[in-house]
Design a protein that fits this description.
225 residues; Phosphohydrolase; hydrolase activity; mainly alpha
Length: 225
């Protein structure tokens, strides 16, 4: 074997060694990123459970609305990658209520005008709490905007129509549906037909009509699973 050929083989071997080392480093980095993402998501789930524990009357609400939001988003053609952000946003949709005093959040009767003004701050509190966390930037639409209304009468920004992020428009239907069909201190749960009629009636007012249509088309099938 001549010297030039030997040097060529040594060079190739060196390049292969570097490539293998880089592949190992990349694999290790991917594993670290996966583990970090899993840790973040476990923390998010812990936050949502803590809120459920604080407000016993809505216990289980977060889990139910998260599951149905993902189903509705999939039915509307939202990609799997985007649904990851929807899931985090749904889990954290009421995180801003951490800033609401117990005397208001847990009040068994009707809220006064002043108390409602405070309660309506919770989306803005959520934005303030979560926006410093880059990992959650793509998941802020639901916590910040799920109380906006299609006709512009919602809060905190009074957004109208398609100016409301799609994630929030999808979640709003699910959130109201679950609230109506659950027992609350101030009223018993509505029946299924009554709740469906309300959702249908609010298309074009509270809700995006396109989202309502997909919800009503798919809801009967979802109840079978």
């Amino acid at each position: 074997m001549d010297e030039e050929w030997l040097e060529f083989l040594i060079t190739i071997a060196g390049q292969l060694s570097i490539a293998v080392e880089n592949a190992i480093l990349f694999s290790d980095l991917q594993q670290s990123n996966r583990e970090l993402a899993e840790a973040y998501d476990a923390t998010i789930e812990g936050w949502s459970r803590a809120l459920d524990l604080r407000d016993k009357e809505t216990e289980g609400h977060t889990r139910r609305v998260t599951e149905m939001t993902l189903r509705l988003a999939e039915a509307m053609g939202v990609s799997g990658e985007e649904r990851v952000y929807y899931r985090r946003g749904a889990l954290l949709h009421d995180i801003g209520k951490m800033g609401i005093p117990d005397s208001i959040l847990l009040k068994p009767g009707s809220l006064t005008t002043e108390e409602w003004a405070i309660m309506r701050r919770h989306p803005s509190y959520a934005q303030a709490m979560l926006s410093p966390i880059p990992y959650l930037w793509q998941s802020l639409d639901i916590p910040y905007s799920h109380h906006e209304r299609w006709d512009g009468s919602g809060y905190p920004r009074g957004l109208k129509g398609e100016l409301i992020p799609l994630a929030a428009r999808i979640f709003a239907v699910v959130d109201v549906w679950d609230a109506l069909t659950s027992n609350r201190p101030y009223r018993p749960a509505w029946g299924e037909e009554e709740a469906l009629a309300y959702i249908r009636d609010q298309a074009g007012k509270h809700f995006d009509p396109a989202v309502v249509n997909i919800f009503l088309e798919n809801y009967p099938e979802w109840t079978k699973t």
